[in-house]
């Protein structure tokens, strides 16, 4: 819930200046949560630039960091990782009063997350389809189990997300 409620939280630090808004603010330029393939920054010409390692780390610390980075990258972007976790939790704990809010926040994350913002560049990427499937499942759970819940009513602006894929 903490990650869903705070779009500025990520499992890494950005190069240079960090997020200019507070961590709980949904930034309109999709600087929210974390993207698939987050080790790549984009330069002035939108050319991918590999993020540099931290120079003060020892060789063994860099090796450990690289292993940890590979593990984090294997989880995918926030929309995939958190979305699938929320769905699993909602199915296992349907009476938890926080589930409707978590489902709503998942749709918000998919709508304002960085992967959604860039999907127009290459809609054939596998994470785009997985994110669409997650949005569909979240919408279905909300409509089926929590139809009268206030969080379901708040999700109306995101209802189109649930129609993206089956």
Task: Please provide a written account of the structure.
The model is unreliable at 46-50 (pLDDT under 50). The longest helix has 20 residues, at 126-145. Helix 3 (78-92) runs antiparallel to helix 4, helix 3 packs parallel to helix 6 and helix 4 (99-112) runs antiparallel to helix 6 (126-145). The protein is 48% helix and 4% strand. It has a domain at 77-163. It has 166 residues and is mainly alpha-helical. It has a two-stranded antiparallel sheet. The chain has helices at residues 2-5, 59-74, 78-92, 99-112, 114-118, 126-145, 150-154, and strands at residues 40-42, 48-50. It contains 7 helices and 2 strands, in the order H-E-E-H-H-H-H-H-H.
Write the layout of secondary structure elements.
Blueprint: H1 2-5, E1 40-42, E2 48-50, H2 59-74, H3 78-92, H4 99-112, H5 114-118, H6 126-145, H7 150-154
Antiparallel strand pairs: 1-2
Helix pairs in contact: 3-4, 3-6, 4-6
């Amino acid at each position: 819930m903490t990650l869903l409620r705070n779009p500025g939280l990520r499992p890494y630090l950005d190069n240079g200046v960090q997020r200019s808004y507070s961590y709980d603010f949904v930034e309109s330029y999709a600087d929210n949560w974390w993207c698939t393939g987050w080790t790549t920054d984009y330069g002035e010409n939108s050319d991918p630039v590999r993020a540099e390692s931290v120079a003060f780390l020892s060789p063994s610390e860099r090796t450990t960091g690289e292993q940890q980075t590979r593990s984090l990258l294997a989880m995918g972007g926030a929309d995939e990782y958190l979305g699938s976790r929320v769905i699993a939790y909602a199915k296992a704990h349907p009476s938890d009063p926080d589930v409707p809010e978590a489902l709503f926040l998942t749709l918000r994350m998919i709508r304002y997350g960085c992967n959604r913002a860039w999907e127009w560049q290459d809609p054939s990427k596998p994470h785009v389809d997985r994110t669409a499937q997650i949005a569909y499942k979240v919408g279905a759970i909300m409509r089926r189990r929590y139809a009268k819940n206030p969080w379901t009513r708040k999700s109306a602006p995101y209802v189109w997300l649930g129609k993206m894929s089956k």
